[in-house]
Fold this protein.
Amino acid sequence: MPSMKNKRFNLLLIVAVTLMALWSLWPTWRDYSLSTQLDSFTSAQDSLKYAMSHREEIDNARKKSLKLGLDLKGGMHLVMEVDQVDLFEQKAWNKDGKFAAIMQNVRAKATQSDARIIDLLSAEFRNENIHLSRYFYDIRNSDQEIVTKLEKESEEALTRAKEIIRNRIDQYGVAEPVITTQGSRKIIIELPGVSDENRVRNLLKGTAKLEFRLLREPEVMVRTLDRINTYLAQNGQNGAAAAVSPTATDSSAAAPASVPVAAAPLAPDSKQSSAKPLYDVIRVSPYGTAYTAERSKEYVVSLLHRSDVQALLPQDSELLLEAKPEMSKEGEKLYSIYLVRKAPELTGGVITEAKATFGSQSVQPEVMMSMNSEGTSKWARITGANIGKRVAIVLDGAVYSAPVVQSKIPNGNSVINGIGSLEEAKDLEIVLKAGALPAPVRIIEERTVGPSLGADYIRAGMLSLSWSFCAVSIFMLVYYKKAGIAADIALVLNILIVLSVLAGFNASLSLPGIAGIVLTIGMAVDANVLIYERIREELAEGKSVLTAVTQGYDRAFSSILDSHVTTLSAAFLLYTYGIGPIQGFAVTLMIGTSASLFTAIVVTREIFHLLLAKNLMSDKSFG
Amino acid sequence: MRIFQKTNFNFIRYRKIAYGFSIVLLVAGMVSLVVKGLNYGIDFRGGSEVVIRFEKNADVGQIRSVLDAAGVSGTLKQYGMDRSFLFSTAFQGDTGQLKSLVSNALNDRIKGNPHEIVRIDAVGPSIASDLKWSAVKALLASLLAILLYVGIRFEIKFATAGVIAIFHDILTVLGLFSILGGLFPFMPLEMDQSIIAAFLTIAGYSITDTVVVYDRIRERIRGQKPSEYERIFNESMNQTLSRTIITSGTVLLSVFVLFIFAGPAIRGFAFAVFMGILIGTYSSIFVAAPLVYDWLRITKSSVRLRGSKLS
């Protein structure tokens, strides 16, 4: 028998743990009862009134209550990857053809393996026998130094990307988003209760790189296009022009295209090599502007990305497409093509404020921007020096508008127009305010659960929990009689502890988490079964109840400890290496196993001591 | 109430039959793994899954043909709950695009039965291989941890036999997944992250069971002659038999409830755990302890155990 003092300590411990568990779960209960109360009102007015008068209590309860995981509540889980290859490309200087070839190799390898990009990069350079210092940082740096610097750079880029994404989400307005980084290039984003996934996706994936670039003169562009056309006509057979026919399979595009300027169709005729391969897909107007139809857009983009085509462009220039199409009179969507300087005059870094509004004279939405002092003076100089010329406003490589500079702009204001809808303008405002990402990001995993399926999951989870609890606790009562009561009390406390720890540490309960609890219900009684079977054996040897109970606990202890430690270590490793939903399962299993160690060894033992002291136990009490 | 009064099974004598049974199970599983392989879910394969729920009953064949006509190729299956279907495809692009493609096709072609897309999952190929690797790492690390712990608390022979039993359990369940995969429409038995969690749960449970038997052997074997080992092993297993069966029973009960009520997302997991616990219980009696016995017999060594007195 433990000493009196020890016994009092155990009792205190049990009371303390129970109270802590109840205290931690109290807000969850309040939250639940308040929301049922709110739902019970018949009129919206009453419920609003009630909500207003109990606002603080409702908010408080909600904040501290047990959170439900995305799968139960509905929402979006995204994993995004920062494009480190692009980032390293940005950091390099002296870029030449050799460098481009190496980076292309690295990019190809990166999609196939999960090795770190920096390792792939340095391996590739070693293969080619080129020092990293030829392109990165200082020529005197050793490869190792450069690798360290680039690693630091990518780490910073990841943190920055995370912050910018957080800014965007905060501005968009999602309750309780969770944004974390994983490894060296992944960002995990959890957005509960998001209904417009498409908008969120667009909001997140853009780099938001804003640039102001000067347009080349129209004659230069016409000459360039002519040159490309001639080149394609000569090399039509071996080029991609014959191979790529994106629109030929699209039956909806088969309708005859009528173009305002010329009668030539705007679709690539893929079967035979044409004398005018480029002008089959691009039209040039008499004013020196060029455009392509929507159905040829993909083909034109792929054409413009070909390195042999790019080599034909004038030095430091680039052909870009318009972001949003314009409707022609015939109802066809047309994208303008611009020849712009490669080096931007000004970038989005100088933007301090952005605001989505409607334009002064039209119903077209636009985004007004203002700049910091450095940007303002630069902008004034640029506009002053280029009056009469056109400046393209480029966001993530697409031209939004290319207005003619009318006069010097001294106050640092600029406007993006050519935006489809006000909603889109609002999103642009958000991304411009949040700033540009250091490198492009890609969505590599996305899981969306609608709220109705989430409700189904909750129902299924609760059903499993209650059935499993009933079945196991009734079995324990039948099999062990009075001792079964103690085991059932321990079981209830066990579940309470798991839920309260989850609530207390702000972890959320997911469907795999519920599965973990159900499994815990089955496993938690194991410790009690071990003890009770041992006590039965001791009783069968003719020992008194008191001795049997004491020796049963003592002798079963090492089995219980060993078995719990092994389960705990498996659960812990599952938590360490598992991802997302699996971690939820591992967490509940860990808490449940630890709790059962406590409930079986301390709680049931204390119950027996109390019963024994009151002479309520006999050798029949263990069934 | 008592299920087992005083049992006196001679487990050790019949161990060869059990070995044979285990080997048949394992070989059947391995053959199926090689010939038929496993059904990978999108977690490990990459691709997209869409769960579509209709307002009224809908015909699988009709939906399938509509989606085919819309140019989205993939497989369509009934998804556990009423009027719901799971469409999985290798599509890797923008899920918004996939959603509108599916939605538009169904709206146009199946009139008068509105649908809702209740879930979309998309996993890229690079992350799928990440997930696979972290799963393998978790499994290996936990086996190593168990080997170490049991090795320290008992003896290396005991630890090794315990880990062999875990391998036996996991490989048998893996084999069952391969053999039964795709046979039943209500449980496709696809390998995904939750199955890895199931394997670790099985590993944890299997070693728990084994440790309880070991613990009893350790308690009784101290100072005994090797000629007494057979009797001690048998008696220890008989004495713990009641506990083994009852605990397995309560866990099986819970997992069975999960299988029935927790819905299609958990069903594969519940099946794996259920089979794993059945096999784990069997292996702790018929594989782990007999292996230790044979090992001791063949090497003619006696047991030097640690940590028997801890409390």
